[in-house]
């Protein structure tokens, strides 16, 4: 049944008295015109306690079905906050589980609109089990079909964990996400906090990393969702859509990256000078900003970009950046998307906070993600690659298909100053004035890119302006493994 034919039934009117868009209207705006086909619109819960026998709205507060985005099939569901608070009971859960399972069977992405107070309190354990079944369905689908969660209102409990199990979370400026709301926080901990400060877009877009995208409003969230889908294959059994190749932005790559390796620059300007149309759909742009990740196209084909951001914390790797990179690499690997890795990294951030919070464990996730990835992966060292961070950033030794480097790049165990202070310590104690010469000597004899190229750690030293053409040539030749399921996309 199409949306155009489906008038909202009188049975819904009491629960639809609240302001805001209906779930059906939202799906209609997300999907191609007139493409929504609903399933389960007559479904109602069978619960009777706490007055629910007098409130049995059609659809049970969630619209489910299938439609198309840019002509490609997508399975969808949308919770309706105006119906029983969008809360999830047994019937509501059945509809979501069915949609996700159907997406896996049909090999199409699933997009869920979340706008819900979580498990329906009146339905008790049946509601909790409902969320358990939704989570299981999310996990069953993981790595088989892309899963995108749009969070368009206040979401609590299970309405946050289901998105967290999906591949991407798009949150609007009006949305909030928390396991327990401000009232429970106050009762349990005494902390006074409002919903936005507890789980608003600043929290999840900037500090927790839960939201991959923050959108101004519903319309902007739908646009991000459509854009994201345009880069992704419909399933792990399919190839990503191919677009007409476009030239990158015309920039002087040499001028963007300063010779002095302590000078910052925005690596997104380098990306713009390499990828089709200069466009990057940046993922988690506000979180762990020292690592830029996102989707672009090179030669019309989707690539995942992973790049150290010299403009933020000097591009150092830390535990958040490692986690951010690891899950993105795992997603790209699950869905056959080649990786292009742009390296300019001084090392891992040192200190008690990093060690105590598990930088070893989190860094290991990024190592594991790159080393196990079977998609084509090409690294370009722009300026420097030091120590453990050199290895982690898709080095040859981790199995990169090719490592390129710009002519002034430096690869070493650490920066020249630190290295000279350690290996020439006795000499410097006696003749401190030699320090500059010793540093220059170390730079020449131990860090120069020629040395890495001679021993095969770098496959080719290329002029910056040739970066795109070399990547195009390599990516054409690196076909990757045949499509098919390889692994899930475990939340990090
Ligand atoms: C039943 C619910 C509900 C719920 C909201 N409503 N949440 N009904 N079960 N979980 C109903 C309200 O009773 C109200 O109904 C209507 O929805 C709107 O709610 P308001 O509170 O007026 O809206 P708002 O001020 O916007 O606040 C939204 C909210 C808040 C922050 C989501 O409603 C809230 O905190 N709800 C409870 C959250 C919660 O603890 N959920 C259970 C989590 S456990 P009327 O009839 O008055 O219009 C869970 C299990 C999985 O989800 C856990 C995994 C970790």
Jot down its keywords:
492 residues, alpha/beta, 2-enoyl-CoA Hydratase, Chain A, domain 1, eight-stranded mixed β-sheet, elongated, disordered N terminus, binds hexanoyl-coenzyme A
Give a quick rundown of the structure.
The protein is 36% helix and 18% strand.
Number of helices: 19
Oligomer category: single chain
Beta-strand portion reads 15-25%
Mean pLDDT: 94
As for the number of domains, it is 2
Bound molecules: hexanoyl-coenzyme A
For the secondary structure, the number of strands is 17
Which structural class do the helices and strands define? alpha/beta
Task: Describe the fold and architecture.
- With 492 residues, this protein is of the alpha/beta class.
- The protein folds into two domains: 23-231, 2-enoyl-CoA Hydratase, Chain A, domain 1 (Alpha-Beta Complex), CATH 3.90.226.10; 253-409 and 458-477, 2-enoyl-CoA Hydratase, Chain A, domain 1, CATH 3.90.226.
- Helices cover 36% and strands 18% of the residues.
- The chain has helices at 23-30, 90-106, 125-141, 158-165, 182-189, 195-199, 201-207, 218-231, 253-256, 267-272, 319-334, 352-356, 359-372, 387-392, 416-423, 425-430, 435-447, 449-454, 467-477, and strands at residues 37-38, 62-69, 72-79, 110-114, 147-151, 154-156, 168-172, 176-178, 213-215, 281-283, 291-298, 301-308, 339-345, 377-386, 402-405, 410-412, 460-461.
- The strands form three sheets. Strands 10, 11, 12, 13, 14, 15, 16 and 17 form an eight-stranded mixed beta sheet that branches. A seven-stranded mixed beta sheet has the order 1-2-3-4-5-7-9, with helices on both faces. Strands 6-8 form a two-stranded parallel sheet.
- A hairpin with a 2-residue loop joins strand 2 and strand 3 (72-79).
- The longest helix is centred in the first third of the chain and has 17 residues, at 90-106.
- The chain is elongated.
- Hexanoyl-coenzyme A binds next to helix 3, strand 6 and helix 4.
